[in-house]
Specification:
Blueprint: H1 2-37, E1 42-46, E2 52-55, H2 57-63, H3 67-70, H4 83-88, E3 99-106, E4 112-124, E5 127-136, H5 138-160, E6 166-168, E7 174-177, H6 179-185
Antiparallel strand pairs: 1-2, 1-5, 3-4, 4-5, 6-7
C-alpha cells in the first residue's frame, strides 16, 4: 500500500510539473504573439504549402481582413509565387533577408495598395517557412502627396504675396525671397533661390 501511495504521489508531482511547463510555454507564446502584434509593419508567416499560417494586427489594419480571412489566403496574395523554390534553395544566406520586393496587394475591398515586402527563411516546429514583413506604402504615399500639394500651395502664396518676403536661416543666410522682394531690392547676389 505504501509503495502504491508513493507512486501515486510521484505521478501527481510529474503531472504538476507538466502543467507548470505547459503554462510557462503558453505565457512565452502569448508574449511573443503580443510582441509581433505590436509591430507597425505587417508580419505574416507562410508555410511550405504556400498558405499563410500567421498574420499580425498590422496586416488586418492595413488590408481590412480579419485573421480568419487572412489565414485562408496564400502567398500569391503578396505576389510571392515561388515559396517552395525559395525554401528549397541552398542555405548560406544565414538570417539575411532572402529578398525584398515592391508589390501590389489588394485589400478586402478590392483597393490595390503599394507595399514593400521583405522575406526571410525561418523555421517553425522543425519545418521551413517564410517570415514576411509587409510595409503598406499607400498611406505613406498619400501623406507625402498631401505634403507636396501643401508645399506647392504655400510656395505660390509666398511668391505671389504683395509684400516683400525674405526667409533667413538661423545664421542669417538668406534662404529664399519672393518676386516682390526682388522687385524692390533687385537681384540678391551670391544666393541661389
Amino acid at each position: 500500500f505504501l509503495r502504491a501511495e508513493g507512486t501515486s504521489q510521484k505521478l501527481s508531482s510529474q503531472v504538476e510539473q507538466t502543467k507548470t511547463l505547459a503554462a510557462q510555454a503558453a505565457l512565452r507564446e502569448d508574449r511573443y504573439a503580443r510582441l509581433l502584434d505590436s509591430s507597425h509593419d505587417g508580419i505574416v508567416l507562410i508555410e511550405l504549402d504556400e498558405q499563410i499560417s500567421f498574420a499580425n494586427d498590422a496586416v488586418t489594419r492595413s488590408f481590412g481582413f480579419d485573421r480568419a480571412e487572412l489565414l485562408k489566403k496564400d502567398a500569391s496574395w503578396l505576389g510571392i509565387t515561388d515559396t517552395k523554390s525559395i525554401l528549397a534553395a541552398a542555405e548560406g544566406s544565414g538570417s539575411a533577408p532572402l529578398f525584398s520586393r515592391n508589390v501590389q496587394v489588394t485589400d478586402k475591398f478590392g483597393i490595390p495598395h503599394e507595399a514593400d515586402i521583405i522575406a526571410a527563411r525561418t523555421e517553425l516546429d522543425g519545418k521551413g517557412c517564410l517570415l514576411v514583413v509587409i510595409r503598406d506604402l499607400t498611406a505613406d504615399n498619400l501623406l507625402l502627396d498631401r505634403l507636396n500639394t501643401s508645399e506647392r500651395r504655400f510656395q505660390a502664396l509666398f511668391q505671389g504675396a504683395p509684400a516683400a518676403l525674405i526667409t533667413f536661416a538661423p545664421d542669417l543666410r538668406i534662404i529664399d525671397w519672393n518676386r516682390r522682394a526682388e522687385a524692390l531690392l533687385g537681384p540678391i547676389e551670391g544666393v541661389d533661390a
